[in-house]
Amino acid sequence: MSKSYYSTKLFYKYYLNWIKLYKDGAVRQVTLDKYYLTYRKLRALAPELHMNELNRQTYQKLLNDYATTHERQTTLDFHHHLRAALVDAIDMGDLRHDPTRRAIIKGRTPKAKKSKFLNLYELRLLINHLELGPNISWDWFILLIAKTGLRFAEALALTPTDFNYEKQVITVNKSWNYKAPTGHFQPTKNESSNRSVTVDWQLMSQFKPLLQGIDSKQPVFVSPDKRVFNSTINQLLERYCTELGIHIISIHGLRHTHASLLLYEGVSIASVARRLGHANTTTTQETYLHIIEELRNKDNDKILHHLSQL
């Protein structure tokens, strides 16, 4: 016998229950946090919207209200999170029709994007501008990421034992949960992120005296009782870039810079992928497609020049 009525529960309460039932314990914490963020936004935007009131118009209004303060891509993510729960609601008989059908995704005008990477000249200016004193500082952190391409959380999790001075490698086998009230170690992004990163002798000789006296099992740059935000380092990096008159990049932009310069130097995509901890070369190719295309054009010029000499 079919249901004669449908859910009249408040939408945000229905969505919260769906998260707890299907997502809690089934996805990584960082992904779960995004679902809960969507829940909080939903509750703030539509505290009185019931499931039986959901239709194409009311759902579109919800998306439009969200889009007034968010860019289109963020609105699209919000829509995808809600739609996943609503599709299940239709299957369960809690909704008669799909209110998300033909939804229009809007959003405010995107902010001007920061440059993704520096060229070699700009990077050299930045490194020479750093105040590399006798104690660990965020300037040393910036130098480390510029020379290794580590992710922000991976660099935060480094301990003195991760530095192998004889082999000139840094071991990456964990990351730092800096978003938690009390920071702590956590697994890397994926299995391929566990890797050994070769570095130059100069960097190793610089860090060796800096790490003396630091507990071998404790992170070099952070402490569990003191929170750190990547915005803090991004602001410092932005100030340096502004002072130097170069492109303003984020700390993640240093990772892009590292990879880009290696590709320009002729390092293979496979080697760059391993160094960055990418699961496969497809990720590397998609991220740096513009550089790969530019290098391919240069290779074609070399091929034609070689053939003309035959």
UniProtKB/TrEMBL annotation:
GO MF, any single term: DNA binding
Record's keyword annotation contains Ribosomal protein: no
CDD domains (UniProt xref): INT_ICEBs1_C_like
Record InterPro entries: DNA_brk_join_enz, Integrase-like_cat_sf, Integrase_catalytic, Integrase_recombinase_N, Tyrosine_recombinase_XerCD
Keyword Ligase attached: no
Domain of life: Bacteria
Domain Tyr recombinase: residue ranges: 113-305
One protein family per Pfam: Phage_integrase
GO BP, sorted A to Z: DNA integration; DNA recombination
Key words, A-Z: DNA recombination, DNA-binding
Family label: Belongs to the 'phage' integrase family.
Name of this protein: Site-specific integrase
